[in-house]
Automatic annotation (TrEMBL):
This is HAD-IA family hydrolase. Keywords: Hydrolase. The lineage of its organism: Bacteria, Bacillati, Actinomycetota, Actinomycetes, Streptosporangiales. It comes from Nocardiopsis coralli. Pfam families: HAD_2 (PF13419). The keyword Magnesium does not apply. NCBIfam families: HAD-SF-IA-v3. GO terms for molecular function: hydrolase activity. It comes from the Bacteria.
Length: 208
């Protein structure tokens, strides 16, 4: 059994379960051009943030809720490039087979998250915390604390699996162990996590 073989697992989605980097880049590029924003600045600040928080940061003169919906529309339009992360299907299938409790806590909106998970044939989580469920996104601990509450587990019994510095910071702030996968970030950017591994299969060895 891995180090976290008894823990409740709270997975981030993009960069952990879903390889959506191209879709996110293309969607945000289309949105930034549509709104006359600097694309490089938008992309620089996007990783690990909700669309609402991103819009508030790079376009505070616009309605953040409306812009989050527009970003989601652009990303869905580019979702043909989305793939499951290597090892993600096997990991979730084994979690289900063992009766393990797990949830998805994502900065994506609910519509986008469910679209990506179902399109890729990933098991639908019994608990999904999306950007639509929280006032403040990662690195605020609220999303992960809500995930723990909804699965009925104390934070100390949960382990977070993340790929972004913001997400890892949120898990740590929530009082949870954090396994960071260096799939979308340099390992040095994730050093505040409890453990940093190269990819999802390496994370699976700790979780199962």
């Amino acid at each position: 059994m891995g180090e976290y073989g008894d823990a409740v697992v709270l997975f981030d989605m993009d960069g952990v379960l879903v390889d959506s980097g191209s879709s996110i880049r293309e969607g945000l590029t289309a949105w930034s051009r549509e709104r006359g924003l600097d694309t490089a600045t938008v992309l620089e600040h996007a990783h690990g943030r909700t669309d609402r928080d991103l819009a508030g940061l790079v376009a505070p003169h616009l309605d953040t809720a409306e812009e989050a919906e527009r970003i989601q529309e652009h990303e869905i339009a580019h979702d043909a490039t989305v793939r499951a992360m290597p090892g993600a299907v096997d990991l979730l299938t084994e979690m289900e087979a063992r009766g393990r409790t797990w949830a998805v806590v994502t900065s994506a909106g609910r519509t986008l998250a469910l679209s990506r998970l179902s399109t890729l044939g990933l098991p639908e989580p019994r608990v999904l915390v999306s950007a639509d469920d929280v006032e403040a996104g990662k690195p605020d601990p609220g999303p992960y604390l809500l995930g723990a509450e909804r699965v009925g587990a104390p934070p100390a019994d949960c382990v977070v699996v993340e790929d972004s510095p913001n997400g890892a910071a949120a898990g740590v702030a929530a009082g949870m162990a954090v396994v960071a996968v260096a799939t979308m970030s340099d390992p040095g950017e994730l050093e505040h996590a409890t453990t940093v591994v190269a990819d999802v299969p390496a994370a699976a060895r700790l979780l199962l």
